[in-house]
């Protein structure tokens, strides 16, 4: 006898399967290089707990990458990257704000306004670059019919 699965469960299973496939496209070395590129100057200036900060940045990179991959289907159907990015503006903004809060919390930066602003822009660049990478790789998988 067959088990009855709701449509919501089926969609969730399909989404998890797609995310697992997309995560195979991601490299930890690549993420660590991007962390050093974006946040290296802040990490070296302050005595930040490197492992906890790096772990958080890895998590946010994965989330932004998967968000871009999720919206890559719109690019496959002819929508521009900017237009697809506007669709997920709220989720992307939430990721940027959460990464900023996480980074400032572990960084002990005080209230140096210029430094905090620089950190926010670095977080914004970091999340947007991973979103873009996920979008491009996801779009490529759709074009190759590997989704």
Task: Give structural attributes.
Uncharacterised_YbaK, DUF2521 family protein, 0% strand, 147 residues
Write the layout of secondary structure elements.
Blueprint: H1 7-23, H2 28-45, H3 50-70, H4 72-76, H5 81-87, H6 89-107, H7 113-143
Overview of the structural elements:
The protein is mainly alpha-helical and 147 residues long. It contains 7 helices and no strands. The mean pLDDT is 87.
Write a concise synopsis of the structure shown.
With 147 residues, this protein is mainly α.
Q: Give the termini distance in whole angstroms.
A: 30 Å
* Portion in strands: under 5%
Element string (H = helix, E = strand): HHHHHHH
Compute the number of strand runs: 0
Shape label: elongated
Share of residues in helices: over 70%
Question: What integer value in Å does the Rg equal?
Answer: 17 Å
* Low-pLDDT stretches: none
Average pLDDT for all residues: 87
SS-derived structural category: mainly alpha
Oligomeric state: single chain
Please give the count of helices. Answer: 7
Largest sheet: none
């Amino acid at each position: 006898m067959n088990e009855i699965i709701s449509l919501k469960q089926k969609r969730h299973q399909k989404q998890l399967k797609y995310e697992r496939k997309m995560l195979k496209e991601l490299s930890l070395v690549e993420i660590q290089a991007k962390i050093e590129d974006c946040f290296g100057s802040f990490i070296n200036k302050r005595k930040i707990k490197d492992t906890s900060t790096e772990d958080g940045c890895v998590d946010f990179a994965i989330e932004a990458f998967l968000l871009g991959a999720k919206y890559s289907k719109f690019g496959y159907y002819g929508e521009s990257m900017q237009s697809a990015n506007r669709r997920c503006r709220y989720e992307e903004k939430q990721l940027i704000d959460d990464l900023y809060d996480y980074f400032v919390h572990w960084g002990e930066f005080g209230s140096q306004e210029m430094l905090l602003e620089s950190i926010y822009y670095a977080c914004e660049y970091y999340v947007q670059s991973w979103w873009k990478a996920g979008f491009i790789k996801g779009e490529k998988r759709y074009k190759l019919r590997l989704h």
